[in-house]
Amino acid sequence: GRTFEDGDDPRWTAHVGFPDTNSQVNSYSDLPEFATTSNGMLQMKAAARQTRLVYHAGYGWESATRGYTTQMLQGWNKFCYTEGVLELSAQLPGRAHQSGLWPAAWLFGNLGRATQKNSTEKLWPWSYNHCPDAADEEANQYVRTQQVINACLGAEFTDQYGLNPNQGRGAIEIDIIEAMPGNITFEYQNTKVAQGLCPALSNDTYQYIEPTLPMVATSLQLAPGIPQWADQRPMEKKAPGDLANCFPNFTYQWYPELELGGTVGANPSVYG
C-alpha cells in the first residue's frame, strides 16, 4: 500500500509531532502502521502508545510525553483546487457513545497549515479584500487588527511582497464532517428552568433544544461573519420568564433576507 512519510506520496503527507491546537493528548506519527492503504482504501490507526519528544525551548532542552499515537494526513502545499465537488466515504473509528476520539475530514486554505498555529494566526478564517470605514469596523470584525495582511494596508505594502494591490490574505476552513462521540445531553430543565432564567417547556419541545453527544457537525468557518447588529437570533438576557430570550421558534426564519423558501428546520446549536 501507499505510505505517507515525507516524500513518499505525491498528494498526501503524514503529519509528525505533538499538536497543541485543541488540547490533544496524542502525538502524530508517520509510520505506515498508523496510515497506509489497502485494497484502494486508506486505513488509519490510533493506539494507546506513549511517545516522547525532546525539543529546545529557547532556554534549554525539554521533553514531553503523550500517551496516545495516531495520524493526520495533509495535502498542504501539494495540491489545491478552487472549485469542485468533494465526495468522501469513511468508516469512523471507535464507539459512538465513548468519548475521546475526534475523527474529522476538512479543507483548509493553503496559506495556513493545520496544527501550526504561527501559520494560521491572523490568517484563519479570513476571506476578505475590503477595507471598511472605521465606523463600520464592528460589522467586519475589526479587519485592521485581526487580519494581518488586509486591504487596509494599501497597495505599497502588498506590492513589496508581490501581492495584488490592496488584497487581503486569508485561509478559510470547510469542515466536511467532524464526529463527536460521547454520552452527554444538555439539560435545559436544570440549567435554565431550575435557575429561574426560563419557563418550563413541554416534553416535546425539549428534544429540539437539548443537543446531545454523539453528534456530527459540518461547518464553514469564514470571517467576517454576521455583525452583532445584524444578528437576529434570540439572545438570552437572563430575564426570568422572558420566553423570547430562552429558546427559538423553530418555525421562524431568523434571517428573512437569506431565506431560500419556507421556514428552516430545527437546529439546536445555531438558531436559523
From TrEMBL:
Keyword Translocase among UniProt keywords: no
GO biological process, one term: cell wall organization
Gene3D superfamilies attached to this UniProt entry: 2.60.120.200
Molecular function as annotated in GO: glucosidase activity
UniProt GO cellular component terms: endoplasmic reticulum membrane; plasma membrane
Domain of life: Eukaryota
Keyword Cell division: no
UniProt xrefs under Pfam families: SKN1_KRE6_Sbg1
UniProt entry keywords in alphabetical sequence: Cell wall biogenesis/degradation, Glycoprotein, Membrane
Subcellular location: Membrane
Record PANTHER family: BETA-GLUCAN SYNTHESIS-ASSOCIATED PROTEIN KRE6-RELATED
Protein name, entry field: GH16 domain-containing protein
Organism: Eutreptiella gymnastica
